[in-house]
Structure prediction request, 375 residues.
Amino acid sequence: MKRVLELALRERVKELTCLYQVAKIAARADESVASMLRDVVQLLPPALLHADVAAATIVLDGVRFHAGVEEIEGPDLSVILEVSGINRGQVAIGYGHLDLEPGKDVFLPEEEHLLEAVAREIGQLVARREAEDARARLQQQLHHADRLATIGSMAASVAHEINEPLGAILGFTQLAQKVEGLSESVQADLQKVVAASLQAREIVRRLLVFARQQPSSAQRVDMNGVVEEVLRLFERRAAAQDLEVDLHLGPGLPAILIDPIQLNQVIVNLVVNAFQAMRKGGTLTVATETREDVVILRIIDTGVGMERKVRERIFLPFFTAQDGEQQGTGLGLAIVHGIITAHRGTIRVDSKPGFGSTFEVRLPVAAAEPGEEAL
Prediction:
């Protein structure tokens, strides 16, 4: 009897130690969920009665973490791994070769309780971490939106202040060009002034677009039609850069409600961005599809890709990763972001240095008008 009590006490200590260690792992704030699960699964086999032939497995969203012997003989014991009430996997234990007396249970009741407690702790850990990640993303989005709103207001003010003197410079310079008897060097200098003024006026126009100070006219638009129209403009440039264009247009896309000129501007900016990333050749893939109530546009390049610190800043006004003669104003992607969000859409980018980038635009499907068929 004493030996049985000692065995039960020892097993209970092992289980409580396991739970204590699991709780310590769950308290780590600076580690990934995968790293923590790898450590948790290592704690389970030593907590079982026959630790030398024990095995444990944790499966979360199809990803498997295992510890102990590889081959499981006989029955195993598993519990569902729930996260916020949703079945996301399981936690299981088992044994390799094990000689037991006939009729004797493989697992102790306490081991089942341990398994349930560990699954509960993992579920809470994952739910807590996902909530923290979601909150961090939301705070980042709010900060980004607030920053864009502030910059947009400032940009609109600056653009209006610049427009008047810029118009005067351009007008008087063009008048000066008409004066007879000007030398070629003076004519060349005046032309440089005109070119610089026109470039400045284009920047002002982009600032106004970014600040949404220019009127837009939302219409029911066929995304596929605009994509094809834009890509036709880039056929010669693609051939000159030795680029292959791979087009995958989803059939029967529903209409979206957007200013067609602004949609054209979005696609042009994204294609130009992709071309600049593939100066030594590559493949541009443009694809569209419908998913539930959104139309999706993906523009994928096989270019240089982006580091994380660049990727996080590309939608900020005046930020550019280009250098030298290729350097732009840094407004292209900021304008794209402004147009898409103004039309209740989203844009995100996935990129890896050396493996290219993927821009994904999602825009809501336009409500069907009475008696009107989808485009």
Notes: The first helix runs from residue 2 to 26. The CA atoms of residues 55 and 68 lie 4 Å apart.
